[in-house]
Amino acid sequence: MAGDKLGHRGKNLLPRGFGSRPWLFQTYESNKNQSCTFLNILNKSLEKRILPALKGKVCLGCYGEWLLLSDELTRECFFQSIISFSKIYIPTFPESPDFFRANVSITAPPNTTKCIIVLVYSEKTFLYICSPERKRWNKVPLRYFDRKTDSLLGASAIHNRQLFVVTTGEETLAIDVDPLVRGCVKMTVIDELRVCPVVSEWDTYLVKCAGNLFLVLVHCYGFAQAIIHVEVRQLEGSCNDMHWRRVQDIGDHAFFLAGSCGRSLPENKAWGTQRNCIYFPENYNEGLRLYKFCLDDQVLDFTLLPESKSGWNTIQWVFPMKKKQTAEEDIFNSSDVSKSEETDSSIIGQEAEIERDTPRRWDELPIELLELLFSRLSLVDCLRFPSVCKEWSKASSFSRRGVIWPWLMHLPNLKFGSCKFFDPFNCKEYTLRSDAVVGACDHLALRFSKDGWVVVTEGNKKIFMLNPFTGQVIKLPPAPTLPFKDYIFDGISFMSDPASPDFVVYGFVFQICGEFVEISSWRPGEEEWTLLEFWPDIPFYPTSNNPVLFQGEYYCLGRKGELGVFNPELKTWNVLSEPEPIYPSVPQMENEFCHLLELDGDLISVFRTDELKKPIRVFKLNQSKMVWENIEDLGNMTLFVDHRNSIAIRSPEEKYANRIYVTRFEGTDVKKGLFYSLEDKRYYPDIQRVVEPVTCVWMEPNLQIHK
Predict the structure, then answer these.
(1) Among candidates 343, 425, 342, 340, which has minimal Cα distance to 378?
(2) pLDDT tens digit string along 535-572?
(3) How far is CA 540 from CA 418, 487, 494, 574, 617, in A?
């Protein structure tokens, strides 16, 4: 094991305080030297440096302060301390590695005899292994893949003397490390992850924490790689009976993800890190985002870092080797819900005690007067109204005549059955308890809403409808299974109110190549779904958006902007030759959020990206000419869009008109909903820190009890 000192001015080149807390370390090529950017996560400051010792090197991974580097020309490989600039050499690579597909697992600091390095490549069926004391890398083929079409996904970690790697077939391989050093493979296969994605793409990380192994799935939306959900699973069992269990708590630790690597550290307020949270960077055209996902309330937020460069850069977390404890304010620990109001299933908020000189008989008010009062109350007061007394509880049968607009519903904590609702016009948040979501053992997704009802799916099979304000639940049969689709429906909708005899739920499934469509229907009283299969002549590539009931037919939006139509009466499916698609060809993956909705008797399509600096495009279908026409004014209408659902309403006030509300907020103590103004062609408010709940849907509150 050899070492030397490089960069005698190394410490002077590093930012002040570097090495005392986790830092993000980003490298990218410049013309003369290797440029670096250091991010202090405590105050989100960026400091740029030129480190000559790193010129022409590629960073493959790190362990603590040690970076694993490789020379691009000579393939020379070594560890280098980013603090002392000491070097420890390891064997040179036998072939030119594909660095962008590489993931490194390191068992111990490189200056110890316990250090073993395993190099795993995504989309390969072999791995490399060596140590600083060995003279060469060993290439180890995995015979497990001989009869399979899948390969390694890239994520890896060493835990309890086993190397864990994830495959593209959603299986996990547990390979004993000691035989692996000798070139022998002894492994156990852990069952499929059975991922239930909102969309089809996700990144995978393996993280060791407090003697346990965790799997983190970061769900992305299409080619744009917009982060829309984060899921955590914990390894349980032993030997041949290991499995992954979904969890919502990682204890007093925080996870740090970058590249394909993951690391955990205890919460430390002096570092600016918060317990039960996951931190990770992502590159976008607009720059580098630092994400934080809080498992406690299932909220994702990000800060767009100023003057950060985007592109194929190497980004690693560099950690202190020793803990440093100081008393400093945790900048992440500010409450986002200072105005929230706690409730149970029948009351939202806390009633102030009213002092009265003499008792009054509220229960003696005429029912006609109660109905008049009820019709003039806000939605929140309507929920409080029945709890005043027994007579007032009859108000639950009243029809509320006040103006209602969509609220954003999301599920922060399934253990306690909490549902949160955000009123975008009044900037207030409320909490409601629902027994229907208490203790769900699998991922819950809010898929569709209409008339106050929300369609909820749990995992790959369960599906039910919930009115969170009345507490009513309608259970549906398990979703049908298809050989090429392992999750519930690409689109969901229903016809009429659940109390109507015309009530029908429809589920749409599309084959990824666009050649097959399956539409399932269910009516109350039926024990299973009725299936219709279509093999159309024209392929249809759908967006991740629900179908829209328009003039008695269900319209689906394709990725080119084309329309597919299902007629429930005739039981037919057609891809329309008109309108002319907005895009000339089919994107390989969705690179925009695409929405289809009815607006005042017209079909509207909305296309938006994940970047807040880019405009939203809105088109209206000219039904006489059957062409999409670009529109720049919604008049007195307001749109609400999430990842799957869309709602259009007539604005209750002029100041809210001509806006498109999305599912994001300003990341401050006082929540302000993010919206796009078509008049100004920009988002408001102008913010750097963005907060977004990951399991959410826009819904219109409905207090009417279904009988």
Answers:
(1) 425
(2) 988 888 888 889 999 999 999 998 888 999 999 999 99
(3) 38, 19, 22, 9, 22
- Exposure pattern of 305-335 as b/e (b: 16+ CB <10 Å)? beebeeeebbbbbbbbeeeeeeeeebebeee
| 63/205: higher pLDDT | 205
* 166 vs 481, residue with greater confidence: 166
Q: How far apart are CA 428 and CA 673, in angstroms?
A: 10
Q: Pairing mode, if any, of strands 673-677 and 659-666?
A: antiparallel
CATH number of the domain that 192 lies in? 2.120.10
> Which residues have C-beta within 8 Å of that of residue 361, sequence separation ≥ 6?
none
Half-sphere exposure (Cβ direction) of 263: Cα atoms closer than 13 Å: 22
Residue 617 has pLDDT above 90, yes or no: yes
User: What is the C-alpha to C-alpha distance for residues 17 and 219, in angstroms, rounded to an integer?
Assistant: 34
**415 domain residue, yes or no:** yes
Spatial distance between the Cα atoms of 572 and 553, rounded to a whole number of angstroms: 10
Number of independent structural domains in the chain: 3
Same domain membership, residue 368 and residue 263: no
CA 673/CA 687 separation, integer angstroms: 11
List all residues 6 or more positions away from 624 whose beta carbon is below 8 Å from its beta carbon.
none
Q: Is 368 helix (H, G, I), strand (E, B) or coil?
A: helix
| 565-592 confidence digits (pLDDT tens) | 999 999 999 999 999 888 877 665 556 8
Residue pair 407/699 in contact by the 8 Å Cβ criterion: yes
